[in-house]
Queue: 4 jobs
Job 1
Amino acid sequence: MHEETIAPNLPSVAEPSAKRPRGRPRKTDDERDDGNRRHALLSAAAQLFRQKGFAATTTRDIAAAADMQSGSPFYHFKSKNALLYAVMEEGMHTALARQKQVMHASDPQGLHAAEQLRALVVAHFEVLLGPGNDFVPVMLYEWRSLQPRQRKSLALLISEYESLWMPVLLMLHAQGRLRAPVGLARLLILGALNWSVQWFDPKKSASLQDLADAAVAMFLKES
């Protein structure tokens, strides 16, 4: 939005009411509450991007879902593409935080490695399939809608996330329990888990705990 021009013949000291506002219009109370409104906007966008797709979703749709005025999203994000990137980034930060909690909760050494892997699998399923968790699935669906620089930035977060699996997989490999080489096992495990967003139905499918048990059984030999 263009900056308003101050008339040159105004006195050097003017009453505050005599000045015209510069820049953007003054924000509403909702728009001023950046933290809560931003979160509501991201949640609404994630749900719509997942349900309708990025191309078919308008900023007006997102604003309505977040109970905001149609132009309000642009106080937080400069474009719909920037909002898409923010949804994916939020999803990866949430996934990283959840996985780090799992890593800190138990020791990935010795006999604990299998339990650690199961905990990582459960946490991954929760991020993908849990209530209100549309953020990472949007990344799986809409990766090609990102700009190259956005993909490069997200790739760093994805690499960090995937690296958290390596100590556990290396330990399981050393124990002779991993059914595939470590590098391939990581790719195959995450690929199989990610595909669940295509078919999982909470009303018809097994629980996340059941899914985790089945997934671990696929990749680990009996001790």
Note: The longest helix spans residues 80-105.
Job 2
Amino acid sequence: MPVVLRRGGAQDGRFLRDMLHHAYYWRERVPGSLTSRYVRGWGRAGDTAVIALESGFPVGAAWFRLFRAEEPGYGYVGEGTPELAIAVVPSKRGHGIGDELLKALLEKARDGGFARLSLSVEPGNPARKLYERHGFEVVDQGAEAWTMVASIAPTTD
């Protein structure tokens, strides 16, 4: 079944919250306190999301938002660098949906004039390979999570 991507909006806050659970608790760990920052008050300036639909039902999402130094996310590297989150429902993983979502989100970031994107990932998370394929490199290796950054070069025609 083909997957359709559409731009995420304010109406997707609840779904993004569900996807955040999949992104940050891929091994069903106990939630931490910073996670609500990725979706709380969704729709503020700079918030950008892409939703994957299959047969009209959402099956994945990728989004980014800017954080302030006094309220950073897990993969915070600076106020001008959005941090991304991405997740695909477990039954749809391994079918290229994450790849399509990440490609679309990187394009939106370029179009938005951002020079780079950051993220946080646990070293054992299989999604790390996806991030590396899209140019993300480790800039900080914490004991439980790594911060990765991708430089986003504008496309030239």
Note: Residues 97-111 form the longest helix (15 residues).
Job 3
Amino acid sequence: MLELKNLKLSYGTSQILNGVNFSVKRGDVVSIIGPSGTGKTTLLKCINYLVKPTSGTIDFDQIRMDYARPDKATIQAIRLRTAMVFQQFNVFKNMTVLQNVMDPLVVVQRKSQDEAREIALMELDRVGLSAKKDQYPAQLSGGQLQRTGIARALAVRPDVMLFDEPTSSLDPELVGEVLKVIKDVTSSGITSILVTHEMQFAKNISNRIVFMDAGVVAAEGSPSEMFDAPANPRLAQFLSTELETQ
């Protein structure tokens, strides 16, 4: 469904991604794990061109783009098939919860107000926020803000959901409510790619784990292969440290 080949990205003399090869099949739930600063979020943002790779290619079903020679039409086609949930919520403070979810449906997909409202209400119910639809972001908790972001992403009916460390900005007591919603989303069959430091959660919801280190995919496999019997010494070291702190 989606494949990145030899993806490279550098900022000046700093090599962030150093030849990443990464693929996702339809219906996969893939969690990307690894040390901070190893390019996990950057990889995610390369998929829908929120950052510009130096080189490499992406194949998304019948869509193909060479990152060295990108074109606007292909970028737009890829973006229309993906939706991202960000670390920092990225909701509009001057809009209600309902308006935030409706916005991409009206502005990007050109749906009528009535149709957008119907879809938005359905997705807000899905994430447990129907009662908050007329409130503004300033009136919400961090967990409710993130659930608003998830509802907005789901509303555009993406082929692939991209979750960029969706619990990293939350107080510990709010993490559970967001993880529950993500689990419900991924169990519905939608293809999902998740960057996370929640190791046990990644193990439980994913059918594949990708370990990144030093800007490359250093290991990948099923959750049992990666967590229960890691063959890669660097992965084993990383997991021992992470699991001790969780």
Note: The chain has nine helices and ten strands.
Job 4
Amino acid sequence: MGSVRTHRPVLCFLAAFSRHIDALEWARRKTTEAWGPIALASPVLPFSETAFYEASMGPSLQIQLLGFERLMDPAAMVARKHEANAWEVEFRDSHQHEEPRPLNLDPGYVSEAKLILASTKDRDHRIYLDQGIFAEGTLYFQKGQWQSRPWTYPNYRRADYQQFLTTCRDYLRDRYRREKESSSR
């Protein structure tokens, strides 16, 4: 029988996308208020691998990837997804954009071994967590690089995304190292 151990905290991750720069700026402010300072932010990147979101979000989508300074318990992902969904509704209701969904917020986390994204949609490869939220192992880190799965979204296969995720992973590993050093003093 294996021993039950608590999980190390992980890096809170968010992918925010919209065709409106004000929506991305609003998302940064909102998440910072709730989740703490942003440690890492990608440039605003084009989101062009799929037309799936055009009907609800419009054309010419842009995305920004964020990693937060405060590490999180992976079990908090259910609450983070519910917060993100509520913020999407809040932004929609408080701004005058023509699309039914002007902002999409996809939270998850980065560990040393993987990128996990939260979802409200059940699929064969997703694990049910709680309160209508599923976890998807989107990428895993092996042999010095990110590896995709058959279901990995095309944008997460891009080199610029994976470079950002490597920066997140390095940041997390450095945090673990510094915490270990300070606790051994």
Note: Residues 10-180 form one domain.
